[in-house]
Design brief:
Length: 237
């Protein structure tokens, strides 16, 4: 299969790395993700990846329990580095050339983020994992994904989730939920659909970058999505 895009940004939630557990990182799930990313590499597309940290620590959750929001978000951003390093390790074992770039400098652990260095690695055929969010509190990794996608010139943001697209209500709770094949960003905002936070959606809309939402747990879905097969929901201006 051949990708329809030159460069994509893949957004992966931290929760996706838990597998069936309630916390932490599942090695079996890491292996599955590596296999799916390897299929994506074989399509010829350049891949940037942003991973969340909900499997380890979520800043909003910490703040809701009385923690200072800035401190909580900083902890969440550091947790994304742990997930990024776990992905880098399993990718490397699978034969995928990978680099972790952190927006919070920690040179003893990984490279520091710069747009120029990211594009250099992408052009060399390496998967680039962007860690530590945007380095700013109050901004989610969804917003960081859109930001990094725009900075590296990605043509599409691919959000891998636990469901096969965007619905008018939670399909895991409502069996009568209706799936959308396509949406505009304005519709996502007006309907208050929980695809990404409103900052991320507004940033994508203002810069006219396409978003694809699909189920990452179905083998081949990620590669199929970038090759133009009808997978999930497409959101555009």
């Amino acid at each position: 299969m051949q990708s329809q895009y030159k460069r994509v940004l893949l957004k992966l939630s931290g929760e996706a790395l838990m597998g069936k557990a309630s916390y932490g990182i599942c090695n079996e799930t890491l292996g599955f993700v590596a296999g799916e990313v390897q299929k994506l590499v074989h399509t010829g597309v350049q891949i940037g990846l942003v991973v969340g940290a909900g499997n380890i620590f979520r800043g909003v959750s910490g703040a809701s329990k009385g923690m200072n929001r800035v401190s909580a978000d900083n902890m969440g951003m550091l947790a994304t580095v742990m997930n990024a390093l776990a992905l880098e390790n399993v990718f490397s074992q699978t034969g995928i050339s990978t680099r972790v770039l952190s927006s919070i400098p920690m040179p003893l652990v990984c490279e520091s983020y710069s747009r120029q260095q990211a594009i250099h690695h992408l052009e060399k055929g390496r998967v680039v994992i962007f860690a530590a969010g945007s380095s700013n509190p109050f901004f989610t990794t969804d917003t960081a994904a859109v930001l990094r996608g725009l900075e590296i010139g990605a043509e599409v943001i691919c959000k891998a989730t636990r469901v096969d697209g965007v619905y008018d209500s939670d399909p895991l709770k409502n069996p009568d939920a209706v799936k959308f094949a396509t949406l505009t960003y304005a519709e996502v905002l007006s309907r208050r659909l929980k695809v990404m936070d409103t900052t991320a959606i507004s940033l994508a809309m203002d810069n006219d970058i396409q978003l694809m939402v699909f189920n990452m747990n179905i083998p081949g879905n990620i590669a199929d999505a970038v090759c133009g097969k009808p997978v999930g929901t497409i959101i555009k201006g």
